[in-house]
Design goal:
18% of the residues lie in helices and 42% in strands. It is an alpha+beta fold. The chain is globular, with a radius of gyration of 40 Å.
Length: 947
């Protein structure tokens, strides 16, 4: 500190000698700093040589030309995970910079001042891929091309990665048989935000064609039979030689022909394939060299208990072949296993072969010689030593039993060993930790009768004593944690339940911001092993909070909407399970091709975890066109267009129309998947319809609006409430109809309000092609007429379906449907509100709506209806299913006495072709109780499964 003093001299201040000396010294210092500015610098700056140094400062510079709302500074710092004050090493620096490589180009410098490191990082982010447009992809779908690429909309754009993408797409088309596909990827930068639109242009060029297939070595099977089983040859023949040749399909043909030969008994067959390509016209000459080997004939001797037919099911020659006799050895093993399961403990199976030539063709006769021995049958099961558990309970755990109505009583040593393990497991579950269970079997060698003895030494029973949870300063009170425990004082002690309780404690604490929680139970047994005191040591780990949320790829989807869907707020306790659930919910919105949530800092056990949500949006706009023929509507055409991400909040705005031989329908609607931020889906729309169903004497025309609310509960349950207003008018069809035939009031326009609560259970494994599971629904229409009481009724509907696949090629499907209409405003019910049955979707074999009809052949409806069906869907290969079925239906409580209340039965057969979007089927149903003047049956064409 420099202070100054002054004395008066002739009216002027005069500096003292001390001040003058200080002034001179200051002037010298100033002059020296001017002449040599670096001589008196605060500290010298040098380059870092890689030695560990404390990190004094981090300077991050982001150089971007893109217009987005992403906090690049925050994201980059979160991804690096470096903090001032920690030791900087080359490895630590490399780990910190590695995540930034996915975001863009980086360069860094490290300066050393005063023995500390100063890090300077410059990040130049990549742009994002906004859209990927694909041209020339036929015959592949766009999705096939996108799946071949490793980039998607929303990913970072790196020009250096585009050549690799071109190669991936070209390779995908080569696999489809194209000779030299040319793929060009170009891009353009969007003026609006600086991101990139990518164009993938595919010039497929010529493709390979199969000119002929030459077969050599097939002496037992003709050329035609083999060629017909080759998909490559069939496609070429049907397309007059113009079909694309695929090497993968040709390879599959080799396997298919090998399996065919093995099924015909040629277990040693070897088929080698070769192709030669003519570069001039790209035609392919296929060649198959077949070494058939001998044909196997298998015989059995000594098999009194099992028939030859049963034993042939144990042969694996058709599945595995017999290279190195492996097929015969495995077959012998399977035959022996079959006998052992039947109680033949001493069975011996041997095989021998004999080669011969019959009509100039090699033959190998295989004879399996079986020495069955005496069949061992359990005649008595004795249980000894059990004091706590009664004998009936123990016998219920055993599969080894004496003969009964559905039990053979066969003695199998392996099954008895399984019984011993099951008995010990039962005792363990009751707290007997030291239980011993021994088995013995006494076999009468002459009669094969077996006496089985199970000897049990129970030992002490261990019960839970005290349970303690430590420490006490946990984020949840100890008493609340105790409620999570399954084991309690006095319960049988079981170590596996203790481990389950460890997981329950951790699962209870983790959502409160402790993702690294660890709970470990320490058990102390008393000296007599009758008491187990458990102490759960809970280490909650560091308290972790949610940091910032960053979103990439949401070009159209609003960030505010995504933040609401994520549910994780900054500074809130971090819950990993909530993050995964939010990721799943975002994927279920049907507006993204993919959603990936990355946790930044979780693996490093940071106190703050940041979330990076990277999404690839689907194209929001769509246009769909379709048409065809169905038995219940005739020729039809439909169209639908919409926006699946309206306003960037996953709302779907759509409009559609359908016209067919039975009328038309149009609708416009909007769907909100997250009503007011909840898990309720809401749909609101307007519609217009004119319907003239086949064989009906009336038609309807309606105009209305409705709203529907639906909520899923878990994986299988859905509840819904639909509200609808409809202005409906019924009219008569045909010139011969007069108002005398129906109630005139039903022909006047009617206003109707309908409320429909419903509940549905769905556990099917597939929506398009179910093979397992159940579908059941219950709905009630509460209808109120605004102009008359004709529409005052309650309509109940129950629909139950089940699917079971006992064999890979067989699926059994069943359905029961029931409807009931109960009027409450009067007895009259309009015809258009009654139930009608018959046709493709109810009872096949009858015309549409003609299950019940009057003397003039006109359909009759009822207030009660029942329909049921059973199908066996048999996979016969090549995407075809053969479907025998049995249907039944009944209509009663009809307006008049026309027709019969009896249950009507039909049976028939269908053939379905399975497409990626469902089956197309042709069915013929035959009436089992045909009546006079009725047709024997009816033909039906359907799209999709009838149930």
């Amino acid at each position: 500190m420099i202070r100054s003093c002054a004395l008066p001299y002739k009216g002027r201040p005069v500096a003292c000698g001390r001040c003058r000396c200080l002034a001179i010294l200051a002037a010298v210092v100033l002059l020296a700093s001017i002449l040599a500015p670096g001589a008196f610098a605060a500290a010298e700056t040098t380059e870092w040589d890689g030695r560990p140094l404390p990190l004094a400062a981090i300077e991050l510079q982001v150089s971007t030309e893109f217009e987005d709302h992403l906090d690049w500074q925050g994201l980059a710092r979160a991804a690096m995970g470096l903090a001032e004050g920690e030791m900087l090493t080359p490895d630590r620096l490399a780990d910190a910079l590695a995540p930034l490589a996915a975001f863009g180009r980086t360069r860094q410098t490290v300066a050393v001042r005063d023995g500390q490191a100063h890090l300077h990082v410059v990040l130049t982010p990549f742009g994002l891929i906004h859209t990927i447009a694909i041209r020339g992809n036929y015959p592949l779908f766009e999705r096939d091309v996108r799946n071949a690429m490793t980039i998607a909309s929303g990913d970072f754009f790196d020009p250096a990665a585009m050549p690799d993408q071109e190669k991936l797409v070209a390779e995908r088309f080569r696999a489809e048989g194209y000779v030299d596909p040319q793929v060009t990827i170009t891009w353009r930068q969007r003026p609006a935000d600086g991101h990139f639109d990518i164009d993938v242009t595919i010039e497929k060029g010529p493709h390979q064609t199969l000119e002929q297939v030459v077969l050599e070595g097939n002496r037992n099977v003709g050329d035609g039979a083999l060629r017909r089983r080759m998909a490559s040859w069939r496609r070429s023949w049907l397309a007059l030689g113009l079909a694309r040749f695929k090497t993968t399909r040709f390879t599959q043909d080799l396997r298919r022909l090998t399996d065919y030969y093995r099924r015909k008994g040629f277990a040693d067959v070897v088929i080698e394939g070769d192709t030669a390509i003519d570069p001039a016209d790209h035609s392919v000459q296929g060649k198959l060299i077949i070494a058939e080997g001998p044909r196997y004939e298998v015989e059995f001797s000594g098999n009194d208990f099992f028939s030859d037919r049963r034993l042939r099911k144990s042969l694996v020659l058709a599945e595995t072949g017999n290279r190195g006799n492996i097929g015969l050895r495995r077959s012998s093993h399977e035959i022996r296993r079959r006998y052992l399961k039947a109680g033949f403990a001493d069975v011996k199976v041997r095989w021998q072969s004999e080669d011969a030539t019959v009509a100039g063709k090699a033959l190998r006769r295989i004879t399996f010689t079986i020495e069955e021995g005496v069949r061992h049958i359990v005649t008595a099961v004795v249980i000894e030593g059990n004091q706590t558990l009664d004998e009936q309970t123990l016998r219920g755990q055993m599969l080894t039993r004496t003969p009964g109505w559905i039990r053979s009583g066969a003695y199998v040593a392996e099954v008895l060993e399984e019984d011993r393990v099951a008995i010990r497991a039962l005792y363990h579950s009751e707290g007997f930790l030291d239980v011993q269970a021994d088995t013995s079997a006494v076999v009468d060698p002459d009669s094969g009768q077996v006496t089985v003895t199970m000897t049990i030494a129970e030992g002490p029973r261990t019960l839970v004593g005290d349970i303690a949870i430590a420490p006490q300063n946990l984020p949840i009170p100890t008493e609340q944690l105790r409620e999570e425990l399954v084991l309690g004082p006095g319960d049988p002690y079981l170590p596996v339940r203790c481990r389950d309780d460890e997981e329950r404690l951790a699962a209870r604490i983790a959502p409160l911001g402790h993702p690294h929680v660890n709970a470990r139970g320490v058990t102390t047994l008393s000296e007599d092993r009758t008491r187990a005191d458990i102490r759960y040591q809970v280490d909650p780990g560091p308290s972790v909070k949610v940091g910032d949320l960053y979103f990439l790829g949401n070009f159209r989807t609003r960030e505010k909407f995504l933040r609401r869907e994520m549910g994780s707020q900054p500074d809130a306790p971090f819950a990993l399970q909530q993050v995964w659930e939010a990721q799943r919910d975002l994927r279920d919105l049907n507006i993204f091709d993919s959603v990936q949530v990355r946790t930044i800092g979780l693996k490093e056990r940071e106190e703050t975890v940041h979330l990076l949500v990277q999404a690839a949006e689907q194209k929001p706009y769509y246009v769909e066109l379709g048409g065809g023929y169905q038995s219940d509507k005739g020729l039809y055409g439909r169209t639908r267009l919409g926006d699946r991400n309206f306003l960037g909040t996953a709302k779907e705005l759509r409009a559609g129309a359908e016209i067919s031989e039975v009328g038309y329908r149009w609708e416009a609607a909007i769907s909100e998947p997250r009503l007011l931020g909840s898990r309720i889906r809401a749909d609101a729309g307007v519609f217009g319809e004119r319907s003239e169903p086949f064989n009906q004497q009336f038609g309807t025309q309606s105009l209305g609006a409705g709203v529907n609310f639906a909520r899923g509960w878990g994986r299988h349950y859905t509840t819904a409430l639909a509200l609808r207003y409809e202005r409906r008018e019924q009219f008569l069809r045909g010139r011969s109809q007069t108002t005398d035939q129906v109630d005139p009031d039903t022909l006047a326009p009617r206003g109707i309000l309908v409320a429909t609560p419903s509940v549905q259970y769905d556990s099917r494994d597939s929506f398009i092609r179910p093979r397992f599971g159940h579908l059941a629904g219950f709905a009630v229409d509460i209808s109120k007429g605004l102009d008359t009481t004709l529409d005052d009724f309650i309509k109940y509907r129950i629909d139950a379906r089940t699917f079971y696949t006992p064999h890979p090629r067989l699926t059994l499907a069943g359905r029961v449907w029931f409807g009931l209409l109960e009027p409450y405003g009067g007895d009259a019910v309009p015809l258009d509100q009654l139930f009608f049955l018959g046709g493709t979707n109810s009872v096949r074999g009858f015309g549409e709506n003609l299950l019940r009809f009057d003397n003039e052949g006109k359909p009759v409806g009822g207030r009660m209806a029942l329909a049921a069906g059973l199908e066996a869907r048999i996979d016969i290969g090549r995407n075809f299913e053969l479907v025998p079925f049995l249907d039944a239906g009944r209509l009663w409580q009809t307006p008049g006495d026309a027709g019969s209340d009896a249950l009507r039965w039909t049976t028939g057969l269908g053939l379905q072709y399975i497409t990626p979007i469902g089956p197309i089927g042709l069915f013929y149903g035959h009436k089992l109780d045909r009546r006079p003047n009725e047709s024997p049956g009816a033909l039906h064409l359907s799209i999709g499964y009838t149930f």
